[in-house]
């Protein structure tokens, strides 16, 4: 078990987006949990004491949508959305995805998680839907291996695609699975890795990729399995596919998913930028959550997701970085800033005001915890998981900003790695290093696999 760590004399502790900031206070962790927050806390015998003067402590960020494997296709000019139509882009990128090996999935996961941790993310949900046949059946297993290496709290969304391209999907045959095969592997992963206990570091969600690329039965069986096993459901929805689903089934995506039972407090969707007001109301009524991925909107979104309308109607909201096919970084901290600024840009003509900057911090913390079905992460309180990050604000970057820690990240932005990131009571990033790991070695290993596979 991790020993006690006392953060002494923090300039500010932000317990949550809605709670009062604590000034010149201490925070004590013991094992995986926060033991106490207050002034002049005593350090237990053997505890490490960290001078946190000038530091702002925040709850660890919770990333609710990503595609780690896409980290290996970043910054490639031939995949530039500004140069290709959607169909041209899909026809270019899926053959690249189909070439990935098991080692690619492992090292791309290490790469994405490392960047997330550097920028304050402590829990990550990855929607892994790419399963080339030659890569074998242990892709998600290798992701759990990567998470253990870095100390990341990891939720694996076991995705999949079952509808052939000949029947209207965008998926090459070498990446297709059968519904039975997909469901069987979901069950295997749940039985092998899913831990529903408090402070769990490993969970599994049933996450068929998207309605447009799967048979109806795939979603129906996903609902059956998830409810039987007591796990979360996730998929892409409301990202331009509704006219296709309506042509196939006579229903737009949200109604289609609700008809199948793929909705409710144990479900959340990624994107949702094309939703109507009535569809937003349906999400609120069913308790279905949304992972808003703001940065892909700049590149590929036809519309800016109406977060003010969703917030006004009480939809559960969280933030996702999304994969490198539409966002070339894995920095959820940056998504808080870009998400707020994007909504300000789109505010004209909308019925609801942009939520306050602090709310965007809430989407990336408490909102993420809610979408993942967790009540032990997302806030800094005694008894909660010791997941946090620290920013030393004694820099010129923060002059004039320190009076409002709640709004700092959304309004000003944080343009550098954290000074410290802690997950489950363990410091996993400190002073520009991953304790116990050689970042240059991790870089070299990943670069070797990337170059040997894709270049």
TrEMBL record:
Transmembrane segments: none annotated. InterPro entries: Amidohydro-rel, Metal-dep_hydrolase_composite, Metal_Hydrolase, MTA/SAH_deaminase. Keywords: Hydrolase. It comes from the Bacteria. Residues 56-428 form the Amidohydrolase-related domain. Pfam families: Amidohydro_1. Belongs to the metallo-dependent hydrolases superfamily. ATZ/TRZ family. This is Amidohydrolase. It comes from Paracoccus broussonetiae.
């Amino acid at each position: 078990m991790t020993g006690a760590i006392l953060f002494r004399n923090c300039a500010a502790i932000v317990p949550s987006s809605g709670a009062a900031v604590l000034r010149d206070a201490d925070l004590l962790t013991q094992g995986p949990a926060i033991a106490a927050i207050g002034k002049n806390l005593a350090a237990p015998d053997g505890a490490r004491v960290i001078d946190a003067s000038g530091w702002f402590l925040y709850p660890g960020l919770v990333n609710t949508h990503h595609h780690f494997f896409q980290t290996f296709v970043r910054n490639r000019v031939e995949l530039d959305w500004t140069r290709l139509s959607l169909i041209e882009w899909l026809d270019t990128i899926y053959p690249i995805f189909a070439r990935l090996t098991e080692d690619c999935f492992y090292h791309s996961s290490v790469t994405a998680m490392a960047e997330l941790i550097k920028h304050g993310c402590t829990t990550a949900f990855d929607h892994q839907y790419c399963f080339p046949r030659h890569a074998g059946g242990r892709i998600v297993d290798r992701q759990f291996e990567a998470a253990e290496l870095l100390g990341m709290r990891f939720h694996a969304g076991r995705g999949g695609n079952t509808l052939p391209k000949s029947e209207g999907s965008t998926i090459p045959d070498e990446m297709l699975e059968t519904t039975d095969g997909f469901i069987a592997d979901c069950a295997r992963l749940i039985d092998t890795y899913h831990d529903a206990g408090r402070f769990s570091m490993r969970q599994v969600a049933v996450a068929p990729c998207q309605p447009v690329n799967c048979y109806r039965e795939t979603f129906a069986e996903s609902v059956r399995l998830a409810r039987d096993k007591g796990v979360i459901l996730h998929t892409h929805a409301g990202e331009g596919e509704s006219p296709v689903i309506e042509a196939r089934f006579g229903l737009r995506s949200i109604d289609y998913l609700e008809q199948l039972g793929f909705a409710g407090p144990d479900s959340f969707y990624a994107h949702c930028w094309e939703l109507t007001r009535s569809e937003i109301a349906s999400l609120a009524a069913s308790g279905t959550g949304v992972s808003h991925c703001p940065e892909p909107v700049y590149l590929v979104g036809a519309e800016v997701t109406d977060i003010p309308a969703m917030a006004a109607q009480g939809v559960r909201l969280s933030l996702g970085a999304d994969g490198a096919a539409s966002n070339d970084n894995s920095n959820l901290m940056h998504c808080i800033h870009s998400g707020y600024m994007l909504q300000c840009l789109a505010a004209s003509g909308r019925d609801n005001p942009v939520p306050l900057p602090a709310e965007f911090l809430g989407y990336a913390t408490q909102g993420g915890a809610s979408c993942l079905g967790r009540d032990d992460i997302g806030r800094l309180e005694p008894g909660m998981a010791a997941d946090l990050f620290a920013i030393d604000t004694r820099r010129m970057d923060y002059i004039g900003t320190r009076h409002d820690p709640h709004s700092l990240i959304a309004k000003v932005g944080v343009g550098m790695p954290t000074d410290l990131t802690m997950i489950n009571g363990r410091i996993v990033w400190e002073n520009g290093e991953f304790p116990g790991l050689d970042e240059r070695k991790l870089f070299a290993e990943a670069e070797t696999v990337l170059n040997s596979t894709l270049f």
